[in-house]
Every structure is written in C-alpha cells, then in structure tokens.
Design brief:
CATH architecture of chain A: Orthogonal Bundle
CATH topology of the largest domain in chain B: Rossmann fold
Low-confidence stretches of chain B: none
Largest sheet of chain A: none
Number of domains of chain A: 1
Distance between the termini of chain B: 31 Å
Strand order of the largest sheet of chain B: 6-7-8-3-9-10
Structural class of chain B: alpha/beta
Strand content of chain A: under 5%
Radius of gyration of chain A: 19 Å
Oligomer: heterodimer
CATH architecture of the largest domain in chain B: 3-Layer(aba) Sandwich
Mean pLDDT of chain B: 90
Radius of gyration of chain B: 17 Å
Shape of chain A: globular
CATH class of the largest domain in chain B: Alpha Beta
CATH topology of chain A: ABC transporter involved in vitamin B12 uptake, BtuC
Helix content of chain A: over 70%
Number of helices of chain A: 11
CATH class of chain A: Mainly Alpha
Mean pLDDT of chain A: 91
Shape of chain B: globular
Number of strands of chain A: 0
Order of helices and strands of chain B: EEEHEEHEHHHHEHEHEEHH
Helix content of chain B: 25-40%
CATH superfamily of the largest domain in chain B: P-loop containing nucleotide triphosphate hydrolases
Chain lengths: 288, 238
C-alpha cells in the first residue's frame, strides 16, 4: 500500500510538470492552431539561464524569476521575429519552422552550456520531505499549483487576459474593438514560454539538466494536452496530472520503468483514435 | 451638416479582383446614410475598406477631418468608428458581459464605461437577462443586439452596420431598427447602414447611395429616392 501511495503521489508531482507544458502547448495552439515543437527546448534553455545565474552566486529564487523573465521575453521575440512571418503559410511550413527552432535552440544550448549532464539544485529544504514524497516533489506540486492558479486568475479576471482570450478566438472581431491582436499573440507566446520555464526548472533537479532533458517531458506534455482537449487549457492541466499518475503506475506495476515513455505514446494514439477532442475539449465542427 | 466620414475616389480590391471603383461617399455628422445594392455590389467591401480589413485600397478616406486610410484597423476603431460586421462578429465562447466589456476595451474612463453598460441595457433589456450566458447560445436576434450593444460600448461617433436585418424575424428587425433610430436621435451617433432590404433602410436613413457592381448609380436624400418611382423600380425592385 505504501509503495502504491508513493507511486501515486510522485505521479502527481511529475504530472504538475506535464500539466504546465501541456498548458503552454494549448495556449499556443489556441492562438495559432499549431503545436510549438520548440516549447520544451525554450524551457530547457531558460533552465540553463537559471543554472548559470545560480552558479554565479545569484540566490535561487532571484535566478528563478530572472529565468522566467528571460523565457517571457524570448517567447515574445520568437513570435515577433519568427512566427509571425508564417501567418498565412501552409501547415507543413510552420511545422518545419517549429522543428527548426527545436534543433537550433537545442544546438545553441549544447554549444553554450555543453552536452554534459549536470545536477540542478532544489530550493526546498530536505526537512519538507515525508515517507511518500521527497521535499522537492512536494515543493514542485506547490509551485505548479501556484503557477496554474496565477495563470487562471490572469485569464479569468484581468482585462488583458480577457483581451488575449478574445484575440485567440476571433482575431478579426478583436481588431474591431481596438485590441492589438499581434501583441496579444506575442504576449501569449511570452506567457507560454514562462510557464514552460517553470516546468523545466522544477523538473531539472529530477531529470538533471542537459540539452535533451525536455524531449520526454514534451511528449508527456503533448499527451496531457491531447487527453484534456487540445482547445481547453484547464483540460490540459488536468490531463497533465492524469498522465503523470498513469505513467508512474504503469511504470511501477505494468511495463517497467524502461518502457514508461511508451505510456505517453499509447495515450496519444488512444485519444486520437477514440476521442480526438479529448476529455474536456469541444468538438470543432466546420461548415463547408 | 458637415461630413463626418468622407470617401474620395476610393478603389478597393481583394488581391487582384477589384470590387469598388472610384467611390465618393459621405456620412453627415449626426446623419444616417444607407448603402443599398444587390449581392456582390460592394456594400460590405465598402465597410471593410473604411476599417482597413484586409482590403487593398487607393483614394482618400477622412474621418472627423483627419485622414484615416492606411491606418491599422485597431487605430481606426480607436478614433470612434464602431463596425458591426456581417455575421455579427460576437465572441461566441465568451459571456454577454465579457463581450460588452471588450467593446469598451480601448477606453480608459472606467466610470463612464459602467454608465454606458447601463445605457446599453436600457436599449436592450434582454441582454441584461442573459448577462452571464455564452454569446453563442443566444438567439440570432439577441446576437445582433449584442453586436450592436458591443459596438456602442466603444462610445463611437460613427456606427458601421452590415445588414443588421440579415436572417432575423420581421418583428425583431422592426425592434432593432427602432432602437437604431433612438441611438441616432438620443445619442447623436452617425451611421452608415448597409442593407439589402431597401424599404427598411429608406425608412431609417436620411441619405442613400445605391451601388451597382462597385459603382454609385444613384445618390440623394432618402425622401427623394423613396418618391422617385422610376429609380425605385429600376434599382430597388419594388
């Protein structure tokens, strides 16, 4: 029973990471109808920024916030400089651009920070840990929940959040009420980048930091987004926790840890075949 | 009356296909101008040209004495031109209240916005009953009302209306046109009204332009066009 509880809770902790990445993916998808394959690499790069600062003696939480600010600005810049050039481009062209960014950021990180696997510090005191969860896992759940709550409150209760939702839903009508749609999309990219950075910085002490650290996590995040519904941000967050628990339990009792990643792929395939809109998504019907 | 909106020698095209040819049109300050014509005459394109909505255009457009052609849609809107597009352009996944709040997005005078919300509910009491409902779940007439209400939240000087009667029951249409008349007389909002229903438009408008394949073929005071039998039969079909 103890092992089961441990696996369940630590699945929730990992799930928080997938929820954050899933949320970031969905935010971009809602605005652009594309999956940002470079989301994980953007997050990884921001984690390196945090690590570099920490190694230079900057206090952890200061480094954390600076890395978030970096991720936000980088996200905005990517939208303004790269993504908007492909506004009316065919889907495949955009996919190639996103994959290109993935490899560019990945190589840039390898070049700047080496491909060596490095340890990443955790800010949570060991005393916080318990029988079932390590201190870092508990802190990670807390940070994830705070992040989700802040993002929710931003979109639900602030005029800027409302304008961003409007711009993603109906750009033309948004312009007609005076919303600067281009900037709203850029802000969305910035916000998604910052959320991804939180996920990477929280994941790094567990998976260690190296340029490819986000490859598996992005896959789980993608599974989370699809499971919850690719057009429902809160569905994606819930999906993240479900995927985290499913992955951990399957790893412990069914397929073994080596095959854990295949759980994400199985979820993706099953969702796409049986319920493409996801658990909480809307089915989009297009009149032709 | 002086002209609030003036188009001079405007040509407009989507890509390579030109839709509007050498259009001269004006809307008097405080007036209602109707733009009539058959399908494909260029009525909707005229409105989209004024707001620079993905239309390529040449010629000059002035609003309140200032040149607005070439400005971004959002900047044109911020100068006080509210556009109720065809298909209504409401945010169907947002609530009625959120739609109205968005209508006032570019304004910074919070207190006046709250007052305007009340004023808009005065015109459209049904929207108050539906305040927390998703816009997509409203009836067609209510959505049209919401679209007009949202446009009013900008506190515009000019309202561009693209077929507000489209697809609605006659009683609802009458109600909407009564309210448009009140908005014009009580709040002094000028209007450029695109309609296929000529009779209805002539009853509300002060001035009329008739478009045929992108060119103005008739223009004058509404009363005059209403009484000109030959023009009515030739162009308006009744």
């Amino acid at each position: 029973m103890d092992t089961f509880l441990h696996q369940l809770l630590s699945g929730l902790a990992n799930g928080g990471i997938y929820a954050s990445i899933g949320l970031a993916l969905v935010m971009i998808f809602q605005a652009t109808h594309h999956i940002n394959f470079a989301q994980g690499e953007q997050a990884m790069f921001s984690a390196y920024i945090a690590l570099t600062l920490i190694q230079a003696g900057v206090p952890y939480w200061a480094a954390f916030l600076i890395a978030l600010a970096f991720a936000f600005i980088a996200g905005v810049a990517i939208e303004r400089v790269v993504v908007r050039q492909f506004d009316n481009a065919p889907v495949l062209a955009v996919v190639v651009v996103f994959l290109g960014m993935l490899f560019i950021i990945n190589s840039l990180a390898g070049w700047l920070f080496t491909y060596n696997v490095q340890a990443f510090p955790s800010p949570f005191p060991v005393g916080l840990g318990s029988k079932f969860l390590s201190a870092h896992e508990i802190g990670m759940i807390g940070v994830t929940l705070v992040t989700l709550a802040v993002v929710y409150a931003f979109f639900r209760f602030t005029p800027l959040g409302l304008a961003m939702r409007a711009a993603a839903q109906n750009p033309e009508a948004s312009r007609l009420v005076g919303i600067r749609v281009g900037w709203m999309l850029a802000l969305g990219w910035g916000l998604a980048g910052a959320i991804g950075a939180v996920a990477a910085i929280m994941a790094a002490p567990i998976v260690y930091i190296e340029p490819n650290m986000m490859a598996g996590i992005l896959l789980y995040g993608f599974a989370a987004a699809l499971l919850g519904g690719i057009n429902n941000p809160w569905g994606a967050a819930v999906g993240g926790f479900i995927v985290g628990v499913a992955e951990n339990l399957a790893g412990a009792y069914v397929v073994g840890t080596e095959l854990k990643l295949s759980v994400a792929l199985v979820i993706i395939i099953v969702v796409l075949v049986t319920k493409p809109a996801g658990l909480f998504g809307r089915t989009v019907v297009t009149r032709v | 009356m002086s002209a609030l909106l003036e188009l001079k020698g405007v040509n407009a095209a989507y890509g390579q296909s030109q839709v509007i040819y050498d259009l001269n049109l004006s809307v008097a300050d405080g007036g209602i101008t109707a733009l009539l014509g058959a399908n494909g005459a260029g009525k909707t394109t005229t409105l989209r040209t004024i707001c620079n909505m993905r239309v390529r255009c040449s010629g000059t457009i002035t609003f309140a004495g200032k040149k607005i052609d070439g400005l971004q849609t959002e900047d044109i809107v911020r100068r006080g031109i509210a556009h109720v597009p065809d298909g209504r352009g409401t945010f169907v996944h947002l609530t009625v209240e959120e739609n109205l709040v968005l209508g006032a997005y570019s304004r910074r005078d919070r207190a006046a916005v709250a007052q305007d919300m009340e004023r808009v509910f005065g015109y459209f009491p049904r929207l108050r009953e539906r305040i927390a409902q998703q816009a997509g779940t409203l009836s067609g007439g209510e959505q049209q009302m919401l679209a007009i209400a949202r446009a009013l939240m900008l506190r515009p000087r000019l309202l561009l209306l693209d077929e507000p009667s489209f697809g609605l029951a006659p009683l609802i249409v009458q109600e909407i046109f009564r309210i448009l008349n009140r908005i014009n007389t009580e709040d002094g909002v000028s209007m450029l009204l695109v309609e296929q229903n000529a009779n209805l438009a002539l009853s509300l408008a002060h001035d009329v332009y008739l478009l045929e394949t992108g060119r103005v073929v008739l223009n004058g005071p509404a009363a005059q066009v209403r009484n000109d039998d030959s023009a009515r039969r030739a162009y308006l079909g009744y």
